[in-house]
Amino acid sequence: MKRENTGAPARTSIRLRTEEDLDACVRVLAAVHESDGYPVNWPDEPGGWLSQSSLLTAWVAERDGRVVGHVALSRDEPGDLAPGLWRARRDANAVTAVVSRLFVAPEARGNGIGALLLTRASQDAGRRGLHPVLDVVATDRAAAALYERQGWQRLATAEQRWSPDRTVTVHAYAAATSPAL
Ligand SMILES: CC(C)(COP(=O)(O)OP(=O)(O)OC[C@H]1O[C@@H](n2cnc3c(N)ncnc32)[C@H](O)[C@@H]1OP(=O)(O)O)[C@@H](O)C(=O)NCCC(=O)NCCS
């Protein structure tokens, strides 16, 4: 099969998410939650969770006409670890964008789709003059491995209390340099 430089099959494309994609995205997210426990807490309104108020843009990965992946770029939200760590490390005035809601359908994995989505969101942040950062739950090992393979730098690991009876270990990452446009 012909493959692009990223290793993704040629029939995979990344495009802006539309309102009509939301149901398909929620279906993929449900399969990801079932297989990987992401997100840790299943949201009451998953469509709303994918359209958080801080959202800047979202993309889907389409394969053979079917949505198989998703990523979003957002403004910092209270509770995000990475933006503050990046500013403390690099520049108190640095403006960041958070890469979030990254997931790929279990049956579509290992084809470079996650890498394509991450690159698209990172490049968009670069065009906006924002430095891409993210937080990831430590148990999402495939995701952390993907970020490190793409040259992202782990800034810190911290415990966060997500509910009275749930503490979660989170890694904060930043893209190593502003991604090429
Ligand atoms: C993270 C995720 C998006 C990657 O999607 P993907 O399309 O498989 O990504 P890619 O194909 O670009 O890369 C997969 C790579 O991870 C590797 N990998 C898979 N599971 C792994 C694991 N548990 N530990 C280390 N590496 C792992 C694969 O071998 C592959 O490596 P290669 O490119 O060197 O062959 C997908 O695994 C996923 O949806 N995970 C659940 C959601 C999640 O945790 N999201 C994080 C939100 S912050």
What does it look like?
- By secondary structure, the protein is of the alpha+beta class.
- The protein has one domain: Gcn5-related N-acetyltransferase (GNAT) (Aminopeptidase, 3-Layer(aba) Sandwich).
- Helix content is 28%, strand content 33%.
- The protein contains 5 helices and 7 strands; from the N terminus they run βααββαβαβαββ.
- It has a 7-stranded mixed beta sheet with strand order 1-2-3-4-5-7-6, sandwiched between helices.
- The chain is globular and about 45 Å long.
- The chain binds coenzyme A.
Write the topology of this structure.
Blueprint: E1 12-16, H1 22-36, H2 46-49, E2 55-63, E3 66-74, H3 82-89, E4 96-104, H4 113-127, E5 131-137, H5 141-149, E6 153-163, E7 166-174
Parallel strand pairs: 4-5
Antiparallel strand pairs: 1-2, 2-3, 3-4, 5-7, 6-7
Bound molecules: coenzyme A.
